Amino acid sequence: MNTKDRIFSFELFPPKTEKGIANLREAVTTLNSRNPAFFSVTYGAGGSTQTNTFATVDWIKDQGIDVAPHLSCVGSTRDELLDILRRYASQGIDQIVALRGDLPSGAGRGAIGDLNHANELVALIRTHFDRAFRIEVAAYPEMHPQAPSFSRDLDNFRLKVEAGADSAITQYFYNADAYAAFVDACAKRGIDIPIVPGIMPITNFSNLVRFSDACGAEIPRWLRKRLEGYGDDTDAIRKLGTEVVTRLCRQLLDMGAPGLHFYTMNQAEPTLAVWDNLGLAGSLG
Ligand code: FAD
């Protein structure tokens, strides 16, 4: 498979416990053997998760590995966001995944912060740091769950591109046609940044249903029914999941996707099972 010039990356979340930290370090070490372009680390609107993001980013950076911290603007003031960006710039970090984020349920209106949407965060970064950071933004081939329409969501996506985003990573999906239609609609609106599909390996049925309901990702009926039918048989779920996700990745790369971004959930094996099936091992260098 021709992977030249494509961007392959792995997403992590900041662990909270000693065991979680050890798992993450092991996963990063294993995944890094495949030579990805970068690892990204998610960032939440709550105080302790932010500290955990910094700790995770620091550790990855200390290993000499390229890292792109996520930064969400919801719940923060401009000054707080600029402080974080200065911290990253001083560490030599040159890539940010810029997001609006979601407030934890129960947070009051006072927690909303200075910026309302991710395009404002992209503009803030460009105003204060010019081109010091490469900026990734989120994209939604199956539409963001709060958007009033697909068309309005695309218009809003374009605002992030016009504000200076360099490329996008999508929410995960299991239908390659949704990605193709989204990329096509973007092209018709003159949006020409790379749109890298986000890939969620399948390891656990109930978690997948919960995440998908929350973020608006559709699990096709046939897949949902087959996974559901396996009950607690984790091996069968993983086996089918690996087949389905490998086929999806092949379709996406064949249709010209500019790379793949894996939501690893801090586990190396499910992502590597797909990666190695695709024949990506050793192809980057
Ligand atoms: P936006 O681009 O601001 O869009 C949010 C909604 O507002 C959409 O419905 C959009 O149509 C609308 N909108 C956008 N701009 C405007 C505007 N100017 N005026 C009016 N309406 C507008 N969440 C986290 O908390 N931490 C993370 O680390 C994280 N990482 C993610 C990584 C990826 C690759 C993806 C796809 C999502 C991630 N998320 C993360 C989830 C994300 O924060 C949520 O989906 C959130 O609800 C929207 O964030 P956004 O950056 O897409 O927001």
Q: From the alpha-carbon coordinates, what is the Rg to the nearest angstrom?
A: 18 Å
Strand order, sheet with most strands: 1-2-3-4-5-6-7-8
First-to-last CA distance:
14 Å
Binned, the helix content reads: 40-55%
Bound molecules: flavin-adenine dinucleotide
Largest sheet at a glance?
8 strands, parallel, barrel
CATH topology group: TIM Barrel
Unreliable sequence segments: none
Task: Please state the structural category.
Answer: alpha/beta
Portion in beta strands: 15-25%
Helix/strand order, N-terminal first: EHEHEHEHEHEHEHHHEH
Strand segment count: 8
Any idea what the shape is?
globular
Helix count, DSSP H or I runs of 4 or more residues: 10
Number of domains: 1
CATH architecture descriptor text: Alpha-Beta Barrel
Kindly report the average pLDDT value. Answer: 94
